[in-house]
Specification:
- The chain has 284 residues and is α/β, with parallel strands linked by helices.
- The protein has nine helices and 14 strands.
- The strands form three sheets. An eight-stranded mixed beta sheet has the order 5-8-2-1-11-13-14-12, with helices on both faces. Strands 7-6-9-10 form a four-stranded mixed beta sheet, sandwiched between helices. A two-stranded antiparallel ribbon has the order 3-4.
- The protein binds adenosine-5'-diphosphate and magnesium ion.
- The site of magnesium ion has 3 residues, from loops.
Length: 284
């Protein structure tokens, strides 16, 4: 009996959140380092489906870092990253397209098998993601910086309760296909849709002052402070695009940006439907 009452309490705790987020757009990026060839973890997809059936409008953006690196090595290419971004030549673009396409189909199929409607697409389709070549001190090759987002198709899908599953490629004005960091793509889509929430699921709990010490996790942090941590190299490698994505999202009209550890079971549900937040919350 006690256990049953406890369960009803958990459900009731979710009610204000269900009401608050009804018909609201939530963009979720699932980390490259947590995405395998076989797709993504069932628990994450269950959370996304739960949100969908509770009346929210989740949009899933995924990467596929390790699988891309594996495919590159198979083709005799050595993966190289600069400031958390993959150096990308013509051959690598094709490998990325193929690898992410494979993962995308698996995710869409898994969502459908679990009873949701889902639609997979690449950022290069329907003008979704337009880019220009990213200019850093180093030449990254075909790495794009987002210049425009056309969310016509995505909007139509979420209105019809279909979960868009997107992988991050973009088209340049030169007609070339560019590799775009999934964090960037997700934040641009979140901004274009003025999403209620932007959630980055990754392989750490969030932003840490000392990344080797989980106790130094920032629970809430302001965009300006994040900027400072990047300058001081406390935030480095893959956390740089992630942190910037959150800064941009909050400045661009997204209500809240979160980072969560994808390996915590049902991290998404805990973050969205309960009173206790986990991970790092980035505010303006
Ligand atoms: N200050 C920091 N706090 C937490 N993680 C950090 C920090 N600085 C760098 N990182 C690194 O960023 C990584 C996450 O980025 P990345 O590997 O690109 O993940 P994803 O595949 O989810 O995009 C972490 O695993 C961690 O090693
Ligand atoms: Mg990354």
């Amino acid at each position: 009996m006690k256990a049953a009452i406890k369960k009803s309490e958990v459900l009731i705790e979710a009610l204000p959140y269900i009401r608050k987020f009804f018909e609201k757009t939530i963009v979720i990026k699932y980390g490259g380092s947590a995405v395998e060839e076989k797709g993504i973890e069932k628990g994450i997809l269950e959370d996304v489906i739960f949100m969908n059936y509770a009346g929210m409008r989740p949009i899933l953006v995924h990467g596929g870092g390790p699988y891309i690196s594996k495919m590159m090595k198979k083709a005799g290419l050595e993966p190289k990253f600069i400031q958390g971004r993959r150096v990308t030549d013509t051959q690598t673009v094709h490998i990325i397209d193929k690898a992410l396409g494979t993962i995308n189909r698996k995710i869409v199929k898994a969502l459908k098998d679990m009873g949701a409607q889902a639609f997979g697409m690449s950022g290069r389709e329907n003008g979704l993601i337009r880019v220009k070549k990213m200019k850093l001190e180093y030449d990254l090759g075909f790495v794009g910086e987002v210049t425009a987002v056309d969310t016509t198709v995505v909007k139509r899908l979420i209105k019809d309760n279909i979960i868009p599953v997107i992988y991050p490629l973009g088209v340049g004005r030169d007609g070339n296909i560019y590799n775009v960091n999934a964090d960037d793509v997700a934040s641009e889509i979140a901004m274009a849709l003025k999403a209620e929430k932007f959630v980055l699921l990754t392989n750490v709990n969030g932003i840490m002052k000392d990344k080797s010490d989980p106790k130094t996790l920032y629970r809430t942090i302001r965009a300006a402070e994040v900027e400072r941590l990047i300058k001081k190299s406390i935030i480095d490698s893959g956390m740089i695009p992630k942190a910037r994505a959150c800064i941009n999202a909050t400045k661009g009209g997204v209500k809240k940006a979160h980072m969560l550890n994808a390996s915590i079971p049902h991290a998404l549900l805990l973050e969205i439907f309960t009173d206790k937040g986990i991970g790092t919350e980035i505010v303006k």
